[in-house]
Amino acid sequence: MQSRSRRYWLSLCSFWGSSLEAELEYQLNAMVELLSVLGNLAGSVFVLGLLAGPQRQIGGWSWEGALLVLGIYTVLDGVSSCVLQPNLSRIVNHVQNGTLDYVLLKPIDSQFWLSTRNLSPWGLPGVVAGLALMAWATLQQGIKVSAANVLLTGTLLLASMLILYSLWFLLASLSIWFVKIWNATEVLRYVLVAGRYPVQAYPPGLRILFTFVLPVAFLTTVPAQALLGEASWTWSLGSLAVAAVSLLGTRLFWQFALRHYTSASS
Length: 266
Prior knowledge:
mainly alpha, two-stranded antiparallel ribbon, 12 helices, 2% strand
């Protein structure tokens, strides 16, 4: 077990090392991405200000609390640009071009290879900008953040990343049956943009949708409440449970999909 874990760790380091070497040849991309992130963030803050109005509240959240939610969303979007999009967007191409055959022949788990083979550093400006906004919003809120709250928030953020990964990988896996499934993943990405605002800011019908159908609330709102010291253990445990079920469901679905995959060489 230890030797297998070490083999996967060395493989991950090799994957990301080679990806960084290739990506860093185009260093101008860092400046372009930074300007893009700052522009999008400024636009989101402007829209948030319009929604908050003169009362500086949105859905019962203070202006600073809403900015914290936006910061968490920005971090998740940066992580998606770093890891999820560079990898999961290629699953469809692997299926269409028949190169998934070569992936399945490798002496490594196919889901691991497809999920981690590439790394793009151009999402890091988004991660840094999101963390900076989170720190500023927390200081402006005037709440003394405890180590327990930071630990809980970090755990819930990890759960958010696993939920986001599971949704993307699940849709990408459908390409084994459907040709143009990537359109659906783009739709999912735009739906998840709703996570940049507290879920309480939406009408009751959308709150139900963004909690029990598309788990947008668990992506940003619940971690923000944890950092502010307002999280309930019910929602926190619910977030961890959704992450665990999503990850397990994705694993089982991928194994099911592979049983229905028709090799390009067969």
